[in-house]
Write a structure and sequence with these properties.
Helix 1 packs parallel to helix 9, helix 4 packs parallel to helix 5 and helix 6 runs antiparallel to helix 7. This protein starts with a strand and ends in a 7-residue tail after the last helix. It has 11 helices and 11 strands. It is an alpha/beta fold. The radius of gyration is 19 Å and the shape is globular. The structure holds nicotinamide-adenine-dinucleotide and (2S)-2-hydroxybutanedioic acid (LMR). Nicotinamide-adenine-dinucleotide binds next to helix 4. This is NAD-malate dehydrogenase. It comes from Russula earlei.
Length: about 325
């Protein structure tokens, strides 16, 4: 019996994500909220023969509160996407306010829900949500997640391509740590479940690393002004959300990569900061998630010199992104 909610449900990510959640038999209620079109999206999805009862609301008549009532998991893909020439950080101007206001709504109506943030820039929007909750005295770092699964999905695909066998892409697992933008995305290719070819030289390793870090740009360029990754993001978002739904409904602990506040597991977080060599508050890494949220923040483990160098380059940008989100002051629109 899980109620899942999508905020931004009529968008490029929101619609296919809602579709994938509707196919999860553990979801018994699906709440859809957007500033446009949710009644239509909800009516459409409601005809699919799966257990979830679907409802869609718009802002009037307390639509956000109605959508969120009783929510166990809230996924936020609301906000504007990139176009060519725009960075994720450029989206902060618009998306910071959107995420801030939605977080206030969640904290008011479903303060104990697991919150999964997709809206960019994730490195900053997650701290925005945390600060909203902190101001209200309701912050539980164990239940706040930045969704970085797309980086992991891309790493699996690109490594399988490199190995010349795309059928392996569902088996390949590559840890991707740090954050979710450019150089803050750090693939640990030395730890791929399927080792790279022995003839893989430094130049090729750097090119593959760069492709994973800047995979989002490939899609933005190909869409040529019509947004960024939506379908692959919906797939990745559903993969992560379904793990959370399984953990909270079955009581089973699962491991998944996510961008979390390092207080979510104080001991694991302190150990991770030592590995990184910096007092960061947020970082993406594998976490163990159970019915109450994050149980353990797992260590990065053995790194090559090149991977240490990548983390060194990620830290200053990540630090600035976190600071920007954590100090955001909402000016009413
Ligand atoms: P989109 O424009 O297609 O959809 C966004 C939706 O949000 C729209 O339907 C819009 O009406 C809605 N929205 C705007 N303001 C809202 C508000 N105040 N309340 C509720 N809904 C609101 O964009 P998209 O392609 O779906 O991308 C959404 C966000 O996800 C972007 O910020 C994008 O950069 C980000 N994204 C993140 C990842 C990731 O890996 N974390 C991947 C892809 C995209
Ligand atoms: C992605 O990685 O595809 C998303 O963050 C969207 C983007 O702006 O690239």
């Amino acid at each position: 019996m899980v109620k899942a909610v999508v905020l931004g449900a009529a968008g490029g990510i929101g619609q296919p994500l809602a579709l994938l959640l509707k196919t999860n038999p553990l979801v018994t209620e699906l709440g859809l909220y957007d500033i446009v079109n949710t009644p239509g999206v909800a009516a459409d999805l409601s005809h699919i023969a799966t257990p979830a009862k679907v409802e869609g609301y718009l802002p009037p008549d307390s639509g956000l509160a109605k959508t969120l009532k009783g929510a166990d998991v809230v996924i936020i893909p609301a906000g504007v996407p990139r176009k060519p020439g725009v960075t994720r950080d450029d989206l902060f101007k618009i998306n910071a306010g959107i995420v801030h206001d939605l977080a206030q709504g969640i904290a008011a109506t479903a303060p104990d829900a697991f919150v999964l943030v997709i809206s960019n820039p994730v490195n900053s929007t997650v701290p925005i949500v945390a600060e909203v909750y902190k101001k209200l005295g309701k912050f539980n770092p164990k239940r706040l997640f930045g969704v970085t699964t797309l980086d992991v999905v891309r790493a699996s695909t690109f490594v399988a391509e490199t190995l010349g066998d795309l059928s392996k892409s569902t088996e390949v697992v590559v840890p991707v740590v740090g954050g979710h933008s450019g150089v803050t995305i750090v693939p640990l290719l030395s730890r791929s479940s399927h080792p790279l070819p022995t003839a893989f030289d430094t130049e090729k390793l750097e090119a593959l690393t760069k492709r994973i870090q800047f995979g989002g740009d490939e899609v933005v360029k190909a869409k040529d002004g019509n947004g960024s990754a939506t379908l692959s993001m919906a797939y990745a978002g559903a993969e992560f959300a379904n793990k959370i739904i399984k953990a909270l409904s079955g009581g089973e602990s699962l491991i998944a990569p996510s961008y979390v506040h390092l207080d979510a597991d104080k001991e694991g977080g302190a150990a991770l900061k030592k590995e990184i060599g910096k007092e960061l508050d947020y970082f993406s890494t594998n976490v163990q998630i159970g019915p109450d949220g994050v149980e353990k923040i797992l260590p990065l483990g053995k790194l090559t010199d090149y991977e240490r160098q990548l983390i060194g380059s990620a830290v200053p940008e990540l630090t600035a992104n976190i600071e920007k989100g954590a100090t955001f002051q909402r000016t009413p629109a």
